[in-house]
Specification:
By secondary structure, the protein is α/β, with parallel strands linked by helices. The protein is built from 5 helices and 7 strands.
Length: 185
């Protein structure tokens, strides 16, 4: 039989274990470190896709295989995503800096209302191509965990980098420059 003091000690011990588990989860489980979020697709061919443009025009349709020979940055986003708004200027800066060097930045709208997505693009100043993954099949093929999430695909069509969470132009630039020089990041 445990007396009053023993019960308190057991309760405090249980509380201490609970706090330690929460601290561990926060320290390891909620990070955006790309090393902890490595894609099983890294080093493998990117999943093929053929997606309609956000504007709905047939000439805006993009097939990944048509971009072979270029470095492709595929960014999954949604208008309802706060972090997507934060990273939007960074992606635009990356597009402006590298588009003449053989890099395509491609936004893939994910689980979004079409009107909201178009308004987001219009108000955010996004200037790179945008497509829609209406049935989420492309997101599933890429193993998407959430938005924003960004993949870098080399000239041979292989995934070489995955970023979970917002990216910066500086980080993308560090990964893109070696690819443009014929190497790997």
């Amino acid at each position: 039989m445990i007396r009053g003091g023993g019960r308190r000690l057991a309760a405090l011990g249980g509380l201490a274990v609970g706090v330690a588990l929460v601290a561990l989860l926060l320290a390891l489980g909620l990070t955006t470190d790309t090393k902890l979020a490595a894609s099983p697709l890294s080093g493998h061919p990117a999943p093929a896709f053929d997606l309609p443009g956000l504007d709905g025009a047939e000439q805006s349709r993009i097939r990944l295989e048509d971009l072979r020979g270029q470095v492709v940055v595929v960014n999954f986003w949604a208008s309802w995503c706060t972090e997507c708004r934060v990273e939007q200027p960074e992606l635009n800066a990356t597009w402006q800096r590298f588009r003449d060097a053989g890099v395509v930045v491609l936004g893939v709208d994910f689980q979004d209302a079409p009107g909201d997505a178009r308004q987001f693009v219009a108000t955010s100043g996004a200037s790179y191509p945008m497509v829609v993954d209406a049935d989420s099949s492309t997101a599933l093929d890429f193993g998407l965990r959430g938005v924003p999430e960004t993949f870098v695909i080399d000239r041979d069509g292989r995934i070489v980098e995955r970023f979970v969470g917002p990216v910066t132009a500086a980080t993308l630039g560090d990964r893109l420059e070696p690819l443009l020089d014929g190497g790997r990041p």
